[in-house]
């Protein structure tokens, strides 16, 4: 699926079932390396290419993987401590293979990871954290060589910048370290809590995940267990925006409203009527044009950078002038020129996107640059006048399960070319 043809001018209405969180499932898959016992994981978004590549990496190491609605993982026979370039370069998440290999086997060798082109995306905080825990790290020919004699050693680690990825790396390494590790200024994302819950289920001793300070008391060995991955909050947010920009009415099932507070606040300010239940959210924007918003992205519980592009689309068709200031990644704006091609009036001033709301967008031939940009351009195609062609949509399947199909059920007209 590289190209989509979208007949626009649609209202998106109906119900959608949200998949498991990609950003929780990916690290959890790599965390299974920490144990030699069998693991069962439910609600894995199995059709995503990022998940598929993560599983290929595990299989390369010697992990046995089977899937029958639930993912069964047997990491007892890992005999390779090296991850090859052709897999590592495909996903940013592959960095999370490093810490579990190092913590359990005392050695790991991987190439520098790839991923969405949304900024420099260094991994210095991951490596500094591991060095603090006693690892020796050598960088040579684009390769990271990590080793430790005996076990890692628990330490107090103050994160100089909030990083989801580095918090996960350090938390996972510390589960098998000697003594207590404290991660100060840790990321608080719901995915961090889910990973900590998973690790605790298999015998780790982690307290405080979801707050700024995480305490990890190292144990000698982790066990097996069963875990259910949390719902994908970014997929949920994307479908809520789909209804908001198309003046529709939607119910998202199998989601977690508590994880979307900052997004729901903004959608309410845009004029949407929102209701929430235990595991559902409805949004009603019928016969209403959204009001422009002023937003600043920041780490959780702030407004997620992964919703920046979708809300730039919302501001593009809203009443008034709206701004979005991006503070997490420095180069997450490539899609803007494509929205401008569709008639949006947008200016980029440093890291602030200024949208002068237009009543309607028009069809065009547009190109996707990354995962969230792909979803945004598809939504733009659904509401624009005319037929839009969205190219390079292979990014989409990295993070959204059956996105065109789910939108078509809501009344979109999207054809794969
Ligand atoms: C994760 C998510 C991504 C989300 C991001 C922020 C996954 C697979 N990806 O990415 O969807 O947009 O969190 O919520 O879960 N940084 C450094 N050095 C490091 C690591 C990060 O300087 O070693 C910087 C980054 O360049 C960025 C900021 O810290 O400016 C935040 O990045 P981080 O939270 O680590 O994002 P990821 O874990 O890569």
Can you characterise this structure?
Helix 1 runs parallel beside helix 7. With 417 residues, this protein is an alpha/beta fold. A four-stranded mixed β-sheet has the order 22-23-1-24. A four-stranded mixed β-sheet has the order 2-15-17-16. The termini are close together. Strand 4 and strand 5 form a beta hairpin. The longest helix has 13 residues. It has 13 helices and 24 strands. Helix content is 30%, strand content 25%. Uridine-diphosphate-N-acetylglucosamine (UD1) binds next to helix 1, helix 5 and helix 6.
Ordered list of secondary-structure elements with their pairings:
Elements: E1 3-7, E2 13-17, H1 22-31, E3 39-42, H2 49-61, E4 64-68, E5 70-74, E6 82-83, H3 85-88, H4 98-105, E7 107-111, H5 124-132, E8 136-140, E9 143-147, E10 156-158, H6 164-174, E11 180-184, H7 190-201, E12 206-207, E13 213-217, E14 225-228, H8 233-245, E15 249-253, H9 261-269, E16 273-276, E17 280-284, E18 294-296, H10 308-316, E19 321-325, H11 336-341, E20 345-349, E21 352-356, E22 365-367, H12 371-383, E23 387-391, H13 403-409, E24 413-416
Parallel strand pairs: 2-15, 3-14, 6-7, 10-11, 18-19, 22-23
Antiparallel strand pairs: 1-23, 1-24, 3-5, 4-5, 7-9, 8-9, 11-13, 12-13, 15-17, 16-17, 19-21, 20-21
Uridine-diphosphate-N-acetylglucosamine is lined by residues 23, 26, 92-93, 119-126, 161, 163-166, 187, 305-306, 328-329.
């Amino acid at each position: 699926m590289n190209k989509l043809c979208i007949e626009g001018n649609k209202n998106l209405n109906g119900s959608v079932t949200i998949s498991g969180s990609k950003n929780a499932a990916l690290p959890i898959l790599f965390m299974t390396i920490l144990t030699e016992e069998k693991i069962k994981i439910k609600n894995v978004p199995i059709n995503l290419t990022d998940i598929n590549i993560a599983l290929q990496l595990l299989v390369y190491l010697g992990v046995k993987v089977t899937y029958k609605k639930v993912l069964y993982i047997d990491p007892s026979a890992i005999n390779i401590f090296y991850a090859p370039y052709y897999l590592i370069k495909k996903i940013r998440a592959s960095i999370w293979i490093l810490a579990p290999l190092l913590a359990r086997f005392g050695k790991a060798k991987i190439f520098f990871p790839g991923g969405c082109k949304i900024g420099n995306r260094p991994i210095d905080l991951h490596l500094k954290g591991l060095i603090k825990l006693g690892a020796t790290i050598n960088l040579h020919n684009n390769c990271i060589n990590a080793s430790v004699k005996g076990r890692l050693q628990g330490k107090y680690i103050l994160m100089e910048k909030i990083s989801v990825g580095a918090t996960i790396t350090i938390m996972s390494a510390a589960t098998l370290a000697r003594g207590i590790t404290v991660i100060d200024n840790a990321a608080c994302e719901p995915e961090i809590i889910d990973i900590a819950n998973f690790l605790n289920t298999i015998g780790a001793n982690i307290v405080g995940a979801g707050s700024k300070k995480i305490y990890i008391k190292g144990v000698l060995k982790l066990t097996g267990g069963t875990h259910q991955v949390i719902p994908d909050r970014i997929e949920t947010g994307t479908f809520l925006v789909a209804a908001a920009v198309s003046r529709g009415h939607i119910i998202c099932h199998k989601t977690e409203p508590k994880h979307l507070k900052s997004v729901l606040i903004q959608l309410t300010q845009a004029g949407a009527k929102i209701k929430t239940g235990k595991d559902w959210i409805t949004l009603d924007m019928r016969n209403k044009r959204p009001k422009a918003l002023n937003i600043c992205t920041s780490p959780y519980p702030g407004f997620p950078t992964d919703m920046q592009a979708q809300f730039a689309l919302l501001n593009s068709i809203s009443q008034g002038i709206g701004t979005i200031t991006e503070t997490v990644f420095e180069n997450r704006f490539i899609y803007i020129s494509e929205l401008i091609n569709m008639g949006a009036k947008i200016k980029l001033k440093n890291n602030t996107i200024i949208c002068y709301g237009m009543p309607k967008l028009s069809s065009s031939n547009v190109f996707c640059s990354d995962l969230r940009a792909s979803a945004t351009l598809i939504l733009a195609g659904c509401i624009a006048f005319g037929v839009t062609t969205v190219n390079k949509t292979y990014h989409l399947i990295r993070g959204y399960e059956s996105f065109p199909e789910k939108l078509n059920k809501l009344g979109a007209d999207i054809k794969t070319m």
